[in-house]
Each structure stands twice: as C-alpha cells, then as structure tokens.
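Our collaborator T.R. sent over the components below with a one-line note: 'Predict the complex.' Nothing else. No constraints on interfaces, no templates requested, no preferences about which chain binds where. So this is a plain run: every listed entity goes in together, and whatever single assembly comes back becomes the starting point for the next discussion.
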Amino acid sequence: MNIKPLGDRIVIKVLEKEERTKGGIVLPDTAKEKPQKGEVLAVGSGEIIDGQKVPLEVKVGDKIIFSKYAGTEVKIDDEEYLILRQSDVLAIIQ
Amino acid sequence: MNIKPLGDRIVIKVLEKEERTKGGIVLPDTAKEKPQKGEVLAVGSGEIIDGQKVPLEVKVGDKIIFSKYAGTEVKIDDEEYLILRQSDVLAIIQ
Amino acid sequence: MNIKPLGDRIVIKVLEKEERTKGGIVLPDTAKEKPQKGEVLAVGSGEIIDGQKVPLEVKVGDKIIFSKYAGTEVKIDDEEYLILRQSDVLAIIQ
Amino acid sequence: MNIKPLGDRIVIKVLEKEERTKGGIVLPDTAKEKPQKGEVLAVGSGEIIDGQKVPLEVKVGDKIIFSKYAGTEVKIDDEEYLILRQSDVLAIIQ
Amino acid sequence: MNIKPLGDRIVIKVLEKEERTKGGIVLPDTAKEKPQKGEVLAVGSGEIIDGQKVPLEVKVGDKIIFSKYAGTEVKIDDEEYLILRQSDVLAIIQ
Amino acid sequence: MNIKPLGDRIVIKVLEKEERTKGGIVLPDTAKEKPQKGEVLAVGSGEIIDGQKVPLEVKVGDKIIFSKYAGTEVKIDDEEYLILRQSDVLAIIQ
Amino acid sequence: MNIKPLGDRIVIKVLEKEERTKGGIVLPDTAKEKPQKGEVLAVGSGEIIDGQKVPLEVKVGDKIIFSKYAGTEVKIDDEEYLILRQSDVLAIIQ
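Returned assembly:
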C-alpha cells in the first residue's frame, strides 16, 4: 500500500457487508448504518507520549472496531480509505 | 471472548434484570431505565499515565457499576456488548 | 460494605435531617434543599498524580461537606448511595 | 474551628460592613454588592503541583480579597462560611 | 502599599490621561476607551512553572501595557486598583 | 523557496487537477471540492515535545494528504501557498 | 524602540502597501483586507517550555507572516503597533 500515515494514525479499509432488510430488499447506500468495522492497511510510526515514541498497538492486517463517524475519508486511485487515529479504535476482533 | 479492547478500555455485558412495575406489568424495553451494572468480559492492556503503562484495576469477571450513557454499544455475532473506558467505571461490587 | 470505588472515588451515605419550616410543617422531599453532608463508607485506592498513586485524604467514617449536585446516585440492595470523586469533597467536619 | 478544608481549599468568614447610601439609608441585604473581603478561618493541607504538596500562601487569620461569586457557601451550626480555592484569592490585605 | 497579590498576580494603578476630542471637549467617563496602561504597585511571589517558583518579569514601578478588560477591579480605602495576572501584561514601556 | 515556516509548521503548494464532470464540462472553481493533496515546499525547525525539539516527519518534496479546511492561505509574489501544522497532515503518499 | 514585550510576545509594525483595484481606484481603509505581513521591532525574553526559557525563533528585523486578526493593537506616541505571541507567527519571509 502506498500511503504512510503520520504519527498515531492508521489507514483502514472499511468492511461492509451487503445489507438486506428482512423482506430481502437490498438497501441503497444512504439507508445503511455507518459501518464500524475495518481492516488495517497501514500504521503510523507511533504515538509520542511524554517525549517517547510508543509503537502502535494496532498492526497491519488487524480487524478492528472503531468509533462511528471517526476519521477522515480519503480517495486514492479511486479507492476509498479511512484515516483514523489509534484512539478512535475501540477494540481488535480476534 | 474474541474482542481485545485497546488501552484503558474494557468490554462488558450489561446485566439486566426483568423489570416489573408494582402492579406486575412487565415493562417494554423503552420504558426501562438505562442499566448501570455490568460484568467485565475483556480488559485492555492498560492505561498510559506519565509515560508508563499501568494495568487496569478492573479484572475479567468483575461486576461493576458504570456511568449511565457511557461507552459505545457494539454487536458481535448478534450479541450486544458495551465498550467502556475504565474511567467510566464507578465501582466494583464485591 | 460491599462496593469498592475506583481510583479517587468514594462512596458516601448522604446525611439528611428532618427538615421543618419555622411553622413546624415537615417538608415533603421535593421541597428540601439538596443535601451537602455525608458520611464516607468506602474509599478508592488513591489518585494518580504525576505517575504516583497518592492515598486519599478522606477516610472511611469521615463526615464530609461536598459540592451540591456532585456525584452519581446508585442503588444497591435498595439502599441509595452517592459515588463522588475526592475533588468534590470540600471539607471534613471534625 | 471544626472544618478542615481539603487540598488547596480554605474556609473564610465574609467580612461585611454596614452599607449606607450617601443619604444615610441602610441598604437591605439584596441591594448590597456581593462582598469581596474575608478572613481566613482554616486552610487545607496544600496544593499538589507536579507531584509535590506545596503549602498554601494564605494563612489562618489573613484578611483576603477574593474573586466575586467564587466559592461555595456552607452553613455549619447556623453560621455561614465560604469555601474557596486558593486560586480564587486575589491578594492579602496587610 | 498594603496589598500583597498572590502568586503570579500584580496590583496596578491605571494610568488615565484627560481625554479631549479634537474640538476640545472633555469627554465624560463613559465615552472614554477602556485604558490599557498602568503602573505596577505590588507584585506576587512568582509563578509556579513545572513545580518551580519563577519570579515575575514585571517589577514595582514598571509602566505596563495590559490587555483590555483584563483583571479585577478592587477598591481599598476609596482608591481603585486593578489586580492582573502577569500573563495579562503585554509589554513594559521603557 | 523564500518562506521559513515556524516550529511545527510546513508550507505546501496545493495539488489541483483539472476537474471535469462525466459529461466533459470543466467545473468552475467554486463547484470543485476543496483539495486535500499538496506538495511540501518548506518545513519548520521542528515540534517541541516535552522540552525537546523533535524534527518533523514530513520532508520537502513529500506529497501529502491533509485535513480539509486546515491551514492558512498566504499569497507571496502572486503565488498562493498554504501554511499547515504537521498535525494537519494525515499521511504521506509514496 | 521603547517597548519590551513579555515572555513569548513580539512587537511588530504592520507592513501595508497601497491597494488598488484593477481599475486603478485606491481603496479606502475599510475596504482593504486585514494585512498579514509585519516587521519585528522587539521580542520578548523567551517562551517557557517545560520549565526552561527558550529564546524566540523570531528576531528583530525579521519580516513575518502572521495569522489574520491575531494580536492586540497598541498606540504609543501616536504610532500603532501590534503585539503578537510567537505562536501567531506563521513564517518568516527571507
């Protein structure tokens, strides 16, 4: 992947599953709830805490749960990614 | 359990008891007060305080009282959990 | 007592005295001013200040004056308690 | 005095002087400006600054000028006191 | 002078000059701009920065420029003074 | 380049590409989305973290993604630049 | 110059150029954009960062770009100056 996030930031690909109502109707994009799961594609060099660089807990390849509405959407080569801070990551799914 | 919360976060299962009014009527979900008790299912690696990682006071299995409306609800494999920060935990019930 | 408050928190029992108007009428609950005195039932393990755990100044059994409206009310075994932070304690009555 | 304020707090007695308009009329209580002078009755154990307990600059018996509207009024044995933080004290009158 | 300001505070006397419009009319008090110059009458014991007491840069007798609307007006023995924090002092006029 | 940004600031040239709608119409300036990519032209001397100057992660020549609406536009010799803080830089495109 | 700014403050003279519209009309003062360039006339003794006085990066004589609307206007001997904090200085023009 050709983006290097800065500091305590990570780049993720949002994991979406096809959403169907009970009656089987595929919901158009705007009716779906904002997704909360993603896969980590790149991680920054670490967070500076009290003058020391601490590597991130999150690794490339982790599946994560993140805060709704967190982060900034970016489009690179027609692909959409989300850049989050590690503090927006709630948990890693194992 | 297959979620690993990050940093000073914990994953809890909210403890609900069936709620009846004095007249014996079971209240539907929306009329109940938001619950404040939970059981800890997973704890993060610790809180960073002045550059040092301090393990959490809360342990897996603890029954806790937490601030109303705190945390983020997540649904994993059709089960609902709550991800809190340790600072939202008021006390441990012994 | 079977609640262990976390960190710099304490559990108190609010001290209420029967309130009468000058004419001798006992005031119903909603007309009384919010109480400001309590007795400490349990104290947390201490406050972390600059990376060091400092034991609380408040001890179990102390009668305290606390900020109006501070803290969170909890009900355990049908008893009502108040969980405060030590910083909400204004003074100890000796 | 039987109140021990916590940390960087002090207990003062507000100094009021009888207020007369130029025409000699004694003003009722609500028309007077909120007082800004007080006498220190009790001081806390000190302020914690960068992990060290620093004794307060204000001593028992000092006459002080304090910020209008600062502090919390408390009534103990039918006497009214004011609990302030040392940071609400502007100056000591010598 | 008989006021000792606390910490990083100073006591100043506001320097006002008679203000005339171009046509020579002396403006009444409410039409004048709030003054921004003062003379320092007393200084506090210093500012605590990272646990160390640092003496103030401003000295008694300095003429200073201060932020409009900063500080608290106090009246002592019918004289009006202004108590400022050193951080409200913009510059010293030499 | 003849601007030296201060501290943790950087000077960038915003990278714009000609924007066409699907029907081939060139959009006038106000209809385009605010750009998010830029090239770094100058970097400050570093960020002060806990009393130590830490050189910036971003280097002259880097292509970066930055937060929408971040920074201050400046015009020097009829050229428009953007001055950002490094914290507004989300990622470096490699 | 006879003003000594305090701490991390600087005194600048705003650099204005005569502004003409394309049609050659000289714009009156209120129609001009607020200027963003200035020359440094005096600098403070330095910024205190983590307990140590760090000299300012900006020197007397520097031409600077500063944040629009930053600082406080002062008038000394009928000359108008602007007192800024160094953090309001975006860059030095070389």
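Summary for T.R.: Chain B touches chain A through 17 residues (CB under 8 Å).
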